[in-house]
Each structure stands twice: as structure tokens, then as C-alpha cells.
Amino acid sequence: IVYVASPHSEHKRQALLAIAAGKHVLVEKPLALDAAEAREIRDAARAAGVFAMEAMWTRFLPRTLVLEQLLRDGVLGELQLVTADFGFRFDFDPESRLFNPALGGGALLDLGVYPIWFAHFALGTPRRVLATGRPAQTGVDGQCALVLTGDTGAQALLHTTLFATTPGEASLSGTLARLRVESSFHAPGGFTLESPATNQRLHWSDTSGLRESAGLAWQATAAARHIAEGRTESPLHPLERSIAVLETIDAARAQLGLAMAGTW
């Protein structure tokens, strides 16, 4: 298997080279610069019969698996609101991958993909995307706030920025209970579940001992297991989900007046 962990601008080219050589691929998030490129990777992998997956490591953390079960069991009731933020302050460097348009720079592709993925995970693909923000000096998106609306009318309030370090928290609020995901929501950690009606409060902790980027081990294990089972996609994080997230990012970029990443 080839792990593509280069700047965003190289994901499609390198993934296609590996696929053409008959190799399975694990491609760092985002899967590509935009949804059109992601579809090319999907189509090539399916034609070659090899495994392909976006390295959205958050999806494979123990906490995420527990959240998935709680949502499936209806513990929160009818989900109404999802919130998530992810931002860091970076010193401006026009040549760095974060600010250089040629390398796929910008907050949405690098950091924003996490809260946007989280909203898709909880609510499904949104039917409406509203975005506002401001650019960095090089013209890439430096900061963006989004409102996503799902099929049921539930909404997600999301934020990402390269200009400030934010709490990195996430929450799920339903008609029966609310859940606060500890910072950093994209990495290993716990959560608190509360019922306003009964004043019950439960805390879940990740006892694996893996912290921060050590949590990448969970996605590596999942990819190895999927391949051993003869799968060509992950049932937990299929390529269609990666494409849908990029479609949301494409919509946000269009509203910010930015060209699609692949046309820079």
C-alpha cells in the first residue's frame, strides 16, 4: 500500500500513479483538491480493483465509533445542531503549503475538512451550504464560517481559520440530550453526555493510551483490516463520503469567490 502524504496539490497525481502500478492507496485528507479530482481517484481505483481510502483518521478513533453507536441508537433524540471548530494561528509564509495557492493552501482544505467531515458524519450530506470568510494575503481562504442544513432541517455551525488558535471542540445537540466532544475533537479523547431533562451527566474516556497523532494507528489498522478482508473501500469511510465533503468545500469556496483548487 502507498500512503500519499504530500501537499494537497500532489494527491491526485501520486494516487493515480500508485493505482496504475497496482498498489492500494491511503491518501491524506483531503482526498484531492476538489470533488472532480476525487472522482478521478475513485474511478481509477475501482477500474484497477485496488483499495483506496482518504486518511480521515478521526473516523476510526474509538470515540467516533462510540458516537456513531449513540447516534444510531437515538440516545440524543432527533439531532438538531452540530457545532465544530478547528483553527490555528500560523505565521504568514507565502511559500508554505498553508498559504501557497499552487500547493492547495487555505484553511478549508487543511483544517476545515475536519469540522465539515464531522457535520457530514453526524447529519449526512447537507442540502444547503452557506459560507462567509476572508482571504489570506495570497488569496487563499484564511478564515471561513459555514452553516450546513441537512435533509431534516438540522444544522451545523462550523468554523476554521489560519489566523487564530481556536478551542477545537465539537458538540451534538438533540431533542433528548446533548454531547460535548472534548478538544481536540479530531484527535483521541473523551466526551460528555448530558440530559437537561433529568440532569444526568455521563463522561466517556478513551483508555487506549494513544494520544494526539499516535491515534493515526487506528486508521492504519482499519486500512490493513479492510485490505485483508478483500475490500476495495472502507465501509466506515467510503470514497463517496470523501467526495461529498469536497463538494461542500467546493460550494464554500465558490461562495467565497475563490476558484476551484484544481484550476489554480
Q: How does this structure look, described?
A:
The protein has helices at residues 11-20, 35-48, 62-73, 107-123, 216-228, 239-255; strands spanning 2-4, 25-28, 52-55, 79-87, 128-135, 141-149, 155-161, 170-174, 178-181, 191-195, 200-204. By secondary structure, the chain is an alpha/beta fold. The strands form two sheets. Strands 5-6-7-4-8-9-10-11 form an eight-stranded mixed beta sheet, covered by helices on one side. A three-stranded parallel beta sheet has the order 1-2-3, covered by helices on one side. A hairpin with a 5-residue loop joins β5 (128-135) and β6 (141-149). α1 (11-20) packs parallel to α2, α2 (35-48) runs antiparallel to α6 and α4 (107-123) crosses α6. It is globular.
Helical content class: 25-40%
> Quick check: average pLDDT?
96
With strands numbered from the N-terminus, the spatial order across the biggest sheet is: 5-6-7-4-8-9-10-11
Low-pLDDT stretches are none
Please indicate the percent range of residues in DSSP E strands (runs of 2 or more).
15-25%
* Overall shape: globular
Largest sheet: 8 strands, mixed
Count of separate DSSP helical elements:
6
Ends apart, CA distance between termini: 30 Å
Structural class per helix/strand content?
alpha/beta
* Whole-angstrom Rg: 18 Å
